[in-house]
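Friendly challenge for the regulars: who can give me the structure tokens for this chain first? No prize, just bragging rights.
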Amino acid sequence: MTTQLTPLATRPTRIGRITVLAAFLWSLLALPIGLWHLLDPENGPYGHENFEPTIHLPEALPGWIAPAALIAAGLLGLLIARAEPRLWPLTALYAAVFGLLLTTVSPMAFAGYMAAFAIPLAVLAGPVLLARGTTARVITGAAIAAILIALISTGVVDPAMFSGFVTNFGDALADQWAYLLTQVWTVAGGAIWTALTLQHLLMRGDGTAERTWLAPERAAKWGRTASWIAFACALPYGLTRMTWLTPWPWFGGPIGDEIDPAIRVWGLLLGFAALSGGVLCLGMTQRWGTRWPFWMPVVKGRPVPPMIAIVPASMMAAMFTFMAVPFAVLGFRQDAVELVWAFPFYIWGPALGAATLAYAIRRGVVLR
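First reply, four minutes later:
Bragging rights claimed.
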């Protein structure tokens, strides 16, 4: 059977126009951010004590060089956002610099803690949603409530500990909001410029797709492989944290050891969050990634709007990819090389990105 390729539109697609607009707006934001740091380097977003860039500028350089370069990059970005595809090396350079060299591990830590906060909610709501029928869900919800009350009354679960988590997390956000927003902006820039580069590379001058591997039936095959690779990348950290529940712990201690309970809870929640993220990577090729499963109220059985899966998956693929370099550098700087294998973002990010691209092709979002 001959593989047929669906031609790409000669005019920019809707996603293409959105990507160009995003690159333009991102470049526009570079101007006030650079100006802020230029006028107030100590209190600016890059003056925070947690800012640990992957590559340090030579100390001999004047302090105004970095913010001035950021402003210049913003001005140039305004021009190349609508550049022709033949200038893709320039957009790729922006993606590499902002995605790999100027990022820190802070956005990943922030995302991890946000995901960890969701785990208790998922544990409580999951059984109720999985129960079939209204009666079964009411009984399941009542049973979970009774168990939770019993755990709290016996002291096994301490509500004060979780309220302390929320308070500490809120205090950290209040102290680091400007720094974190700037880091999110940096990662978003890497993602936007990567998307713009891919958009250029996936097109020829005549508006047709460049490779036969972009055909939907081909994409289904390599996309399935990529999604399983992404799933496997979640296992090292997730399973390492699960050993805290056994007498043979790694990088921690078993239940009953002298480790601070708050640290233990955070570690377990982060481990469950990593494993849950790995399962979500499989959604790019599973049926529940295209149709809502039975346990989803109201929408069960209906088609999943493609962008509901593509947008968050693309964001996480970009973040994972861009975290590869700062995590590796941090591991070697702090003599913690376990970070290199516990967080294989250098494989996880590209694999999830490939799985997401295959999903977008199969759902008719990229190729029409």
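Residues 14-107+176-362 form one domain. DSSP finds twelve helices and no strands in the chain. Your move, everyone else.
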